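=== RUN LOG ===
request id: a7f3
mode: sequence -> structure
chains: 1
length: 326
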Amino acid sequence: MTIKEIAEMANVSSATVSKILNGKDQYISEGTRKKVLEIVEKEGYIPNAIAKSLKIKSTKTLGIIIPDVMNLFFSELARGIEDAAERMGYSVILCNSDNKVSKEERYIQVLQEKMVDGIILTASEQSVSRSLKRRNTPMVLLDRDILIDSDVGRIIVDNEEGAYNATKYLINKGCKNVGFISSEQINKSSGQRLKGYENALLDNNFDVDEEKIYLQNYTIETGYKGTMNLLEKNKLDGICCGNDLIAIGAIQALKEKNIKVPEEVRIIGFDDIQISQFVDPPLTTIKQPIYEMGEEAVKMLIFIIEGEGVGRTKVLKTTLVERMSG
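=== RESULT ===
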């Protein structure tokens, strides 16, 4: 079913049908409008979005690439993006990179082939600038920043300050041997969190001991393995974790070692994903404004799409949420 066929059935011009379907029918009689819409409903007409997008040079669609849709942090991030996009008249296509650079690169290409108006990318942990070399679509980097020369928008939090405050919190609670478990320093946010930890130690007259640092991935498994590894070498009384999943793994490892949290070892996470308040004990953590980050990414991306400027960076603040683990 095409607009031309609908016009023939209603005995009107194709232009009249087009105006009715696009809400520009203020000068068309109610009788004609009603007749056309009845035919549209009866015949199940579906507009050709691709043809329309070629004409207006916009699909009103945004692409989202996240590393792990099962991670509650990224689920909430995606929800913030989707809600904001819908309010601003855009649909979204969600892509899960499985934290793999190869899939990330492929999805960037696929989204461009789908003619999305812009892309919001939360990079994989190993992502480097080559992922974006062939990009010619407006883009905003969200949460995980990448060192690249091309003009992209950035929505990030102050990772260094957040990790500094987390470590300082444990020190203020009386911890004298604070370990650190996080992701490797491939992307900027991982390096910034490590720097925040180290600076907090130095500012409080503690040495930075490499044997108290374990870096791998932002996963529960890393928290578990990292805690077991650090306990073999150190007597810890506090662990600062790069995210909440790591903290959950750390708590599990300590339980298996019959080490009480927080009586013997205090734990603090980073993110404040929803499940963090329901673990045992409830997790003290550095809260990122996750939903707001998604909203801000959409606002910035549409700003760029509309030609209002590129290369902007917005840094959001973190807050400390105190529960039972710290």
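=== NOTES ===
The two ends are 63 Å apart (CA to CA).
The first strand starts at residue 61 and ends at 66.
=== END ===
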